[in-house]
Amino acid sequence: IVDYNKNSIGVLLGYGNATFQAVRVLPTEKGSLPVYITVGDFNNDNKLDIVLVNFGTNNVIIYFGFGHGIFYKSKVYSTGIVSGPWSLAIGNFNNDNRSDFVVANRASKDISIFLQCGSESYGAITITAVNSGSQPYAAAVDDFNNDGLADVVVANFGTNEIGILFGIGDGNFHDMIRYPTGVGSTPCFVAVSDFNNDNHSDIVVANCEADNLIIFLGFGNGTFATGETYLTGDRSRPYSVAIADLDNDNIMDIVVANSGTNDILLLYGYGNGTFGKKESYPLGYDYLPSSVAITDLNQDGWRDIVIVCIGTDNVEVLMKMC
Fold first, then answer.
1. What is the pLDDT of residues 176-187, one digit of tens each?
2. Per the domain annotation, does 195 fall within a domain?
3. What CATH code is carried by the domain that includes residue 108?
4. What band does 131 get if pLDDT is binned at 50, 70 and 90?
5. Same structural domain for residues 217 and 257?
6. Are 36 and 43 in contact (CB under 8 A)?
7. Does 243 lie in the same domain as 222?
8. Domain of 315?
9. Cα atoms found within 13 Å of the Cα of residue 106, Cβ hemisphere only
């Protein structure tokens, strides 16, 4: 969990019954203002590590794990002066079976590609211009044209579009292909899954100002059709989404963190690229949910939802009962 105001991250180790140990705090840097965190294996030792995006100090930090909940801080990697990094996604961009990552730089309006070049080091950084005024807020990685190479989709907050960069296989990319999300929509999050069971990657975009989600259905050749738009509620400001099969019907569903209306919205999929039943779970006044994740916290076979609320400095949990 990132703590933007205290320049630190917190690790909560679970007991397997939906309860957790006391938070373990890892300091970042003075003025770092951490904004995004994810986990992966960044030194090929089969142990989970943490990668952190620091908006205030324009860099990325990796904390390598020992495998028992203890981490040590590695080298700091710059994303560029006044780049304003905002989010990150993991992929293998040069086909060496190592975890690389892409950073969306909100202020410098570009993305940074970090390629793993050793057991605990990254280099060969390339900067790919996104678009003038784009302000990329989020990125996701998948193979959108079925060529076996990792591609990147970016949510361009400032230009109201998503952009897709097709990988060449050496850490570089072809020119961006753009799909509009609507005038004034300000897309702030993007995620990838297969929503219509055709074995092709589809995209869901959360539009903060338009208060909606848009589905883009992939054809498997790098092109997409604009699917349905789903309203998330007046002034809801959907800030992030997570994807999973919530009701065990082998169809992907969507969870939305509505920061404007302080609730969590569930959309259940039909398996044909559309969504039907909605469920809303209010959190409380000024909770401001900013991020959601899905996993089985108590090992009962049902997926639960973890919510980070920046308004209360708390983590909330929604337990799936049946």
1. 999 999 999 999
2. yes
3. 2.130.10.10
4. confident
5. no
6. no
7. no
8. 237-321
9. 20
Contact indicator for 35, 52 with CB cutoff of 8 Å: no
Model pLDDT for residues 22-60, shown as the tens digit of each residue: 999 999 989 999 999 999 999 989 999 999 999 999 999
Q: What is the CA radius of gyration of the chain?
A: 19
Q: Do 191 and 261 fall into the same domain? A: no
Q: How many C-beta neighbours within 10 Å does residue 127 have?
A: 15
SS (H, E, C) 273-287: CCEEEEEEEECCCCC
DSSP secondary structure letter of residue 270: -
Is 156 part of a structural domain of the chain? yes
208 domain residue, yes or no: yes
Which pLDDT band, with edges at 50, 70 and 90, does 74 fall under? confident
In this structure, the answer to whether residues 305 and 259 fall within a common structural domain is: yes
Pick from 130, 124, 126, 129: nearest CA to 112: 126
Evaluated on CA atoms 218, 224, 228, 233, the torsion sign reads positive
pTM, entire model: 0.95
Q: Closest Cα to residue 178, out of 149, 150, 198, 158?
A: 158
Tokens 């589809």, located at residue:
202
Residues shown for the chain: 322
Distance, in Å, from the CA atom of 284 to the CA atom of 307, rounded to the nearest integer, reads 13
Q: Are residues 251 and 226 in the same domain?
A: no
Which residues, in sequence order, are bridge partners of residue 37? 52
**Whether 276 and 193 share a structural domain:** no
Residue that finishes a domain, picked among 183, 212, 231: 231
Residues 84 and 182 in one domain: yes
Residue-wise pLDDT for 160-200, tens only, equals: 999 999 999 999 999 999 999 999 999 999 999 999 999 99
User: Which tokens go with 180?
Assistant: 């509009």
